[in-house]
Amino acid sequence: MAAWDHHSDTGRPRRRRPALLALAAAAFLAAALTGCTFSREPQARSVPAPVIAPSAQAATGDIPQVVRKVEPSVVTIAHDQGTGSGVIWSKDGVVVTNNHVVRVEDQVVERVEVAFFDGRRVPGTVRATDPSTDLAVVQVDRKDLKPATFQRALPQVGELAVAVGSPLGFENTVTAGIISGLHREIPGSAQQGIRSLVDLIQTDAPISPGNSGGALVNGRGQVVGISVAYIPPEQGAVSIGFAIPAATAVDVVGDLLRTGRATHAYLGIEPAPVTREVAAQLGLDQAAGVLVMEVGDGTPAAKAGLQPGDVITRLDDKPIDTVEDLFGELRQHRPGDRVTLTLIRDSREQQRTATLADNPNG
């Protein structure tokens, strides 16, 4: 089982509130990761330009026509621990996939096999990964590939969604549904340090283990997301799957190809949910917000004067009700951005301004 890379937003902890830590524990909704169940069978270079589609109105789409357009741009990625999927980024051999597809027990699998729609199978090398967004780049020695077209604009809820990948090793599998929701988060994921499970596209196009890294496309055959996770039926779910938005993939892959790493805005706290017990202890009106458990020395949070026990309720004009909300809003920012944090301390609301840094954890 491929493991997620767990890490928090903290630097070196300055101090913490152990009494609140026990109260802040929350149940983690077990979301199976697409590709987490496998079937058992870098240097910076010039950056190839992805094909990016202009924004357009939602189209119903002819599914067979959509499939004919996108199939040549979706691949199967395999190693001795299992299989996943990938999407062709550029004709000169760059393929996008999930970090967890090329990672086993917290170690990157440097060499993989990539199977293409034309039947060819060639070795691939993992060039770079970004655990924070669960994206990775694989390089193969081919110059004749058909890159997918990425739509940076978010799709519309209700729009056609077609998932293409290799669930359970069944290559070139197609499932269809609609875009079910935007800006989704899987509750509890950020509490576990899985920051990629925020700001996701939700779809009811069936996604299974092995779809990881594959394409979620619209009715025009444009990639709107990279399949990443689903909630399994044993959790009571019926066709609830998730994809990383194409805009996130375009930005992160661009960073990975240019420098070998992606940059992410960093506040420097260890967050925890505000449970009813925490709210009662702190005298809050409702169980909402993000409890600051630790503040890293020298971090933007420390420089802004945040303290353990503070409860963050807004970032700029966006309400922060959950830990996932905080990570989702941080993802919309870049290092160097100045943000205004609204927080509650000693039952009084106040504001602090922080200048976000580049996350040293990646």
Write the layout of secondary structure elements.
Elements: E1 13-16, H1 18-23, E2 51-53, H2 63-70, E3 74-79, E4 82-90, E5 94-97, E6 103-104, E7 107-108, E8 111-115, E9 121-130, E10 135-140, E11 149-151, E12 160-165, E13 173-184, E14 200-203, E15 215-217, E16 223-231, E17 240-245, H3 246-259, E18 265-266, E19 269-273, H4 276-282, E20 290-296, H5 300-303, E21 311-315, E22 318-319, H6 323-331, E23 338-345, E24 348-355, E25 357-358
Parallel strand pairs: 2-11
Antiparallel strand pairs: 1-20, 3-4, 3-8, 4-5, 5-10, 6-7, 8-9, 9-10, 12-13, 12-15, 13-14, 14-17, 15-16, 16-17, 18-25, 19-20, 20-21, 21-22, 21-23, 23-24
Distance, first to last CA: 23 Å
Overall number of domains: 2
Radius of gyration: 21 Å
Q: How many helix segments?
A: 6
Share of residues in helices: 10-25%
CATH architecture of the largest domain: Beta Barrel
In percent, how much strand structure appears in the residues?
35-45%
Residue ranges: pLDDT <50 for 5 or more in a row?
1-13, 21-46
By helix and strand content, what is the structural category? mainly beta
Count of β-strands: 25
Which word captures the global form?
globular
Largest sheet at a glance?
7 strands, antiparallel
